[in-house]
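Fold in tokens:
===
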Amino acid sequence: MVFTEQIIHCSNPDCEQPINHIGDRLCQTCQTPLIYRYLWAVGVETDSVTIGTKIDERYEVITEQIWLDTQPGEIPKVPPEIPQEAIPYLKLNREKLHIPQPYGFVSVGEDPALNILLLENTPIDQQGNLYPVITAVWEEAKAVRQLYWLWQILQLWQPLSEQGVSASLLSPYNILVQGWCIKLLELHPNTEPLTLQDLGESWYSWIKVAKSEIAPSLNHIIQQMCQGEAEFTTISHQLNQLLLTSAAELPLMINTAGFTDPGLVLKHNEDSCYPNNTDNLDEFLTQHLSIVCDGIDGHDGGEVASQLAVQSLKLQISIWLQDVTQQSEIISPELLKQQLEASLRVVNNMIWSRNDEQNRQGRERMATTLVLAVQIPQNIITHTGWESNNTHELYIANVGDSRAYWITANYCQLLTTDDDMATREVRSGQSLYRQADKKPNAHALTQALGTREAEFLKFSVKRFILEEDGILLLCSDGLSDRDGVEKSWQELVIPLLKGEIAVEDAAKDWVKKANEKNGQDNTSAVISVCRVSQAYLVPVPPASLVLESDEPEESAITLVESKPSELQTPEVDSIKESSQALLDLDLNEETEPDVSQTPNQSKIFVQLTGIVALLLVGTSLGLITWRQLQPQSFNQFCRQLIPKLEQFCPNQE
């Protein structure tokens, strides 16, 4: 370890003179933007490293534990066998919005076994400074944000407990925040069994400086946790009610537009999105739903699959939202996620059965990626006693590599994870991402809609709360490839947030910019500008829910009729099993309240009745959608159902 000149290398492999001075933003030779990747160093030897030295001729020590990789284009070193301390990070890759990920290892000192683990995706800004610790900004935060932080911590408790690292959530100095989002600095192994009581005790000091409107209810919840009186589901339910009640006090205005383009090379467009520039828009639906689908490249009929998915989901979500707005009781996040997954299973099996009807094999089978965002307008009584018609809940689902981003004037956050081979290797603990990402098949998809029967798909559905002004971006990989969003968001989003350009123009501009950088692929972008600030509140009457016509919209989808003999028995049986699974969803464990904790039994009855009604509606709308978009296969399916299920089929033709 010696003091050296502070230099940083250009990541462009074709750059002839890649050496630059730290502080430069563009390569002096090729004008490529320089990458400043700050890492968090974890290990017993970090305190012995002198600030200002360079480790392994690569890592510049900025502070005791913040190191800068001066050769970001090179793969970091990893031992032949991944050390055990990295495994929990890899297993928790699904939570990487909140948890850092292993980057590489460095040996410091005489003992090569004393590895320092370097973490990326850490709560460190672009200048190499840590984000604020939660306790430093807690008192100034508004009530809804205080509750939202606690909600995120609570939702991390179970997955971290499964990996034996829930102690990471007990120290406020390990919990940092980037706006609304909780970010852990590192993972701490448990030294003893931990319970919700330990978590509650770590929160206790925060009550004294919680906002007055939530302090009494929050105090009651934390007392239950500290006394060991309630199960996780009870605490989760109570905190969710308090969070939604607080969020509903805020105004909410959403303006959405989308655009899709085949690009500069391809003649046809396998992407589909909603809304887009050609849609006859439903005002209510566009305020609550956005979709991007990307027909898989090389699969004949990819454009058909993507359009089929969009049209089907529009019909299903319309009916679903209508039912939600009629509910008087709050629907739990668990149930809403299950309903959304049920809709995705219907779409998947429609594409799957179409492939079988047309005897498509191998790469001829059509499929599509999907990223979907639906904003749920639940009714709730707020703290001040008035009834709000929106709890600010946002649910995002994705399959494949189409992505969702949340962007403000200060940061850009990736909300989804790709379903590809590199991610699969990381989650299985076989490789660190930087190594897996360099393999030839790293970005080959591991799942998409239509590639397999729905029971074998794993849908990712996440819940967020809209409590700050920002932009939700859904896009296909034509935009996100090569870090396209991360490199361009400031240029395109800041004018949009300032109101200098219309959202429709912003969507077109982003696609145009993607074509300039990656014109070989189709590109789609759907942008939702979300306003919750009072400054943007404009008094308008609530939009009424207008359902689309029962007649399917005209589209590029060509329905191919099949004779009954063409639908083989094994394929019909698989569809039966998928549909039966929708009817047999077991929600008792997650949604049935604890009677000993809830004395108002009449309220319980209303909640359970609502849950049953929602399940029936979810199943029915899926069947109705199938009938409208694929009448031939649907009728054949109904004729082979067991008698008890025939009642769910509309009149057959």
